[in-house]
UniProtKB/TrEMBL annotation:
Phylogenetic lineage: Bacteria, Pseudomonadati, Thermodesulfobacteriota, Desulfobacteria, Desulfobacterales
Function of the molecule: Condenses 4-methyl-5-(beta-hydroxyethyl)thiazole monophosphate (THZ-P) and 2-methyl-4-amino-5-hydroxymethyl pyrimidine pyrophosphate (HMP-PP) to form thiamine monophosphate (TMP).
GO cellular component, one term: cytoplasm
An annotated Gene Ontology molecular function: thiamine-phosphate diphosphorylase activity
GO biological process terms held by the UniProt record: thiamine biosynthetic process; thiamine diphosphate biosynthetic process
Keywords of the record: Magnesium, Metal-binding, Thiamine biosynthesis, Transferase
Protein name: Thiamine-phosphate synthase
PANTHER family in UniProt: THIAMINE-PHOSPHATE PYROPHOSPHORYLASE, THIAMINE-PHOSPHATE SYNTHASE
Enzyme superclass (EC): transferase
Length: 211
């Protein structure tokens, strides 16, 4: 599958008005095409059970479920793949465990990491962070639009931009070369996740029409 469009990353603390699952399903109705389930505090059993419930409903909609970090949860829930960071399980081992059909994304936080990833057959790179964001306080680099544009020139991979992206800057991020935008607060913290996702999706469709 191609990772593109609007990519939702869940954040339980950022879900101010509705539950994680309500946010996910409403956002999918608004146009989200990939959901990454990120749970830093849930016990493993609850994480797996949540992932299984999401996977069943998301697959019925043709939407991919990606698990953040946890290879074991992805396997147990039969998710579509995982997203890993530079300090998580090495990509080659993750690929061996999950198989060639799994979607595996890798975070890159510097130009050096991005260049090193050219030797890997990852499905996409998560370019982090484009702008400052309250959901990630340990940012090593703020890429900005110019940095993202350079990343597009240097990489053969699909790029998912993340960090501080919302309706006011999403068009510029797509224009700089992102294949997808990963959003957290812009959807999770919205009173109406469906509407928030739909607004972002309209921006994405507008970008596609001008390519």
């Amino acid at each position: 599958m191609k990772v593109e469009g609007i990519y939702l990353v869940t954040d339980r603390k950022a879900c101010l008005w509705k539950s994680v699952e309500e946010v996910v399903f409403e956002a999918v109705e608004g146009g989200v095409s990939v959901v990454q389930l990120r749970e830093k505090s849930l016990d493993t059993q609850t994480f797996v059970e949540t992932a299984i419930r999401l996977r069943k409903r998301l697959h019925a909609k043709g939407v991919a479920l990606i698990i953040n970090d946890r290879i074991d949860v992805a396997l147990a829930a039969k998710a579509d793949g995982v997203h890993i960071g530079q300090s998580d399980m090495p990509y080659k081992l993750a690929r061996k465990l999950l198989g060639k059909e799994a979607v595996i994304g890798l975070s890159v936080e510097s130009e050096e990491q991005l260049i090193a990833a050219e030797a890997l057959d990852v499905d996409y790179l998560g370019v982090s962070a484009i702008f400052p964001t309250p959901t990630k306080t340990d940012i090593k680099r703020q890429w900005g639009i110019d940095g993202l544009r350079r990343a597009r020139q240097l990489s053969r991979h699909r790029l998912v931009a993340i960090g501080g992206i919302h309706t006011e800057n999403a068009a510029a991020v797509f224009q700089a070369g992102a294949d997808a935008i990963a959003v957290v607060s812009a959807v999770c913290s919205a009173r109406e996740p469906r509407q928030a996702a739909a607004e972002l999706y309209r921006i994405y469709r507008g970008k596609k029409q001008h390519v």
